[in-house]
Amino acid sequence: MDIGKILESLVNNTRTLKRVSYAVLALTVVIDFFISRHHHVFFWEDIPGFSAVYGFISCVLIVVVSKALGHYWLERSEDYYND
Amino acid sequence: MIDWVHPSVFLILGALFLPLFKGKAQRIYIVLLPLLALLTVMLMSLGVHGVFNVLGFELIFGRADKLSLAFAYVFSSAALIGAIYALHVKDVSQHVAAFIYAGSSLGATFAGDFLTLFLFWELMAFASVWLIWSRRVKASIEAGYRYLLVHAVGGLVLLAGIIILYVTTGSIRFDALQVRDAAFYLILIGFMLNAAVPPLHAWLTDAYPEATVTGAVFLSAFTTKTAVYALIRAYPGTEVLIWLGTIMALYGVVFAVLANDIRRLLGYHIISQVGYMVAAVGMGTALALNGAVAHAFTHILYKGLLFMGAGAVIQMTGRSKLSELGGIYRYMPITFVLYMIGGFSISAFPLFSGFVSKSMEVSAAADLHLTWIWLLLTLASAGTFLHTGLKLPYFTFLGDDCGARPTEPPRNMLVAMGIAAFLCIFIGVYPDWLYNMLPHDVEYHAYTATHVVWALQILLFTGLGFFMLVKHLGGSPMISLDLDWFYRKGAGIFMQFVYRVVVPIEDWFIQVYRSVFRGNLALGIKGLWLDKNVIDGAVNAIAAVVVRCAGALRQMQTGQLQHYALVMVGSLLILSLYSLF
User: Using a CB-CB distance cutoff of 8 angstroms, which residues of chain A are in contact with residue B463?
Assistant: First the structure.
């Protein structure tokens, strides 16, 4: 089957794609409650779902901090260096 | 019988004969050169080869141990992949420059002394700038000059360090530096500049986006990773690198949010990824150093793949900005899928190469109980997926239709991307192939249940965050300031300052001098007259009076006792008469 057609059908079925994605997200957290933890260094390694929360917070933090830095300080027009 | 051949011979000397070939023969020759270099590396035996005594220096061109061979292996592979990707390019000078660049990178890798290293180090800078200039637009020419100037300064600092090292220790052997003297820090600064460690990083994101489509693929592979190799060799366990590397990993991530040019975004992620390697060099444990080598190895392959994907988009659409791209997956589906393999690899998804390499460095941080380093490196890895795995492909290939109707790139470009993509998955699925090449014998298992679940949670929930914030994440037609401001704008502002402030002040001083000091000159002449005629006159007059009085008094001194007695009696008589009245 043509790669283009597979991609096309994926893009056209975003609702199904979304549902599958949410199911996978939930699954990774659920599995976390059942895996055995033999060796750990940091206390949070024992908390199921910690990395899910950490990943989400990381993402939001990076976006907010960077956008704020850009908006208030670093962003300039594209001709800035050509003037 | 020759028992050892330097692989750079094929790339550097071989490249010089490239213009002699035409057409199909030239294309065969272009693939043959890096292939021969790769074979030479694969067949090379461990040991020290190619030792020459020149002017009392022992120059070592061929130190082949597990560390240099691992880097040489991936460097020559990258040269082969890059050459295939560039096969359609008609401009012979670009091929020559790319091969000399790759060859000098191999030369630096096999160098056993600092002078040989320096020789190839400089050759890299001068060959690579050609890949930037070859785009032949004003922005590239200017960026190329800045790139060259920055590397010239870095090279000088490195050379100064090497000279001091030689003067103080009498040795130029390229091994771990122990004594923390001036040489230690100067050479470290030279290496850090090429590794793009902030604040010495801005040359990378300034110049790489301005390079040719094929040139940027070579640039992404060699300069920074040769510097990582040099740091592993000379500075293992230098603690300051742990924090510098972690800051670097975050710095790249923050600036990647603001980047609109797709290759500038990828450039910031070179800085971010090399940050992990620099931090691992600072940790210095066997696992950390193995991690740095493994990460450099996989990074060269997936970053090359990402630059090839971005380059294909730029070549086929003529656009390079997220704000001008979108919706082209329909026209370039193979490019999109191959790019995504690179995106999943750099993001360290299980079954992709980043997962088995980057995790070694993070595990090494855990073993050393470096809590903050561990948390910040994990945070940065969320940022990696956010940009190279989500933002860039979403706004380039998916998102709103930008109106461009490109086709897939030439077959050779797809083949090169295919080879890199295959290696990314192959290493991800069969990491032992990579682990066997690493310098230290350390047991490490990437695929444990906790690690896989951990990585999936971090990445997938980053993805959730992305799609929640996607409206705010599109590229905007802006640029963000970075430290290159200091020599791009800062230098101009400094000159303006000189023209508008320093020069007027100087003029003012000249005026003041002319009026006040020249007036004073006239005054001085008067003063001189006054001095001569009044002050000197007065002094001289007093002196003359004293001389005359002394002469008169001298006349009074007769030296006869009866005269003195007469004066004394006379005086007593006058004083007693005075007291009576």
Answer: 21
